[in-house]
Amino acid sequence: MNEIMNTKEAARFLGLNEKRIYQLAKEGKIPATRIGGKWIFPRALINQWIIEKAKGNLKGEEGTASNILVVMGSNDLAWDIISHTLQEPPFHIIVSVANVGSTGGLIALDQGLAHVAGIHLFDPESGQYNVPFLEKYLPGKELVVIHLFQRKQGLIVRRKNHLKIGGLQDLSRPGIRFVNRQKGSGTRILLDFELQQNGMSPSDIHGYHHEVDTHMAVAMEVLRGKADCGLGVYSVAKSLGLGFIPVKDENYDLVVLKKESGLPQVKSLLRVIRSEEFRETLKEVGGYDLKEIGEQVWEGVA
Questions:
Q1: Cβ–Cβ under 8 Å, residues 158 and 243
Q2: Is the bond leading into 90 cis (omega within 30 degrees of zero)?
Q3: For 1-15, 111-125, 233-247, which range has the lowest pLDDT when averaged over its residues?
Q4: What ranges do the domains of the chain cover?
Q5: N- to C-terminal Cα separation, the chain
Q6: Any idea which fold 154-249 has?
Q7: The pairing of beta strand 288-289 with beta strand 142-157
Q8: Is a pLDDT exceeding 90 seen at residue 66?
């Protein structure tokens, strides 16, 4: 995992546009330094900054809480679209998106560090997504779960797939270099489950411990030739013109504390994801099933 990010990588990581990142860096409001005329951003300090900002914003410090939405959890290209839309009129909301993985998102929600957790966690025992994990990570909390979409997870491979990778069983072939997602991410949990189902072990895979923290980072490793394949979502593979081998369709949901579901920034988020404009944009991106987008799928005490 790259410990230093450039401006473009920092913008993608935080879900902000590059212009906003430049502005924050110049004003000294984000951990950054300038070397050789270019801004660089230490990932560890950015993560710390996110947590500290989240603590302050959720407490309403500086009178700006209603204009800031803190999202932590699973990575998806859709957050780039959502963040850009919420920053524009009539919303004017700054969105901080931290790609900490699905379990990290639930932990952040439990600790009061986020307004929304984005998750896609598969429970092998029930065969269900997401709801079975709420009691484990948010015991006793009154919650609302909103369905965002169903998306395609699969192996991202090179465009011509010259190694003829056809599925997860090929990951143990000699010479196949894999790139993995970080521990705690829904994608990593899905991979481990699928390996077990196929009678495979992490030790069978060259690159199992080669970790990155976003779907785009997986795809970029494949595009740059640093890996032959990695598990990720179709929308990212398509955006970079890479090949894609489907493995599973999964549910991506949003988890919100019931007491915070009426906050202005949360209401604005739901307004955006339920809009026809957002639906049409995701259709163009590809790889999403949008039949139940924005619907409340669960409410109760975990």
A1: yes
A2: yes
A3: 1-15
A4: 4-150+251-301, 154-249
A5: 34
A6: D-Maltodextrin-Binding Protein; domain 2 (3.40.190)
A7: antiparallel
A8: no
> Where do we find the tokens 């598969």?
122
* Topology of the domain covering 4-150+251-301: D-Maltodextrin-Binding Protein; domain 2 (3.40.190)
Q: Do the beta carbons of residue 187 and residue 193 sit within 8 Å?
A: no
- Residue in the structure block whose two tokens are 């030790």: 203
* 31 has a pLDDT exceeding 90: no
Chain centroid, CA 156 distance in Å = 16
Distance CA 240, CA 184 (A): 25
- Which segment of 46-50, 217-221, 231-235, 259-263 scores lowest on mean pLDDT? 46-50
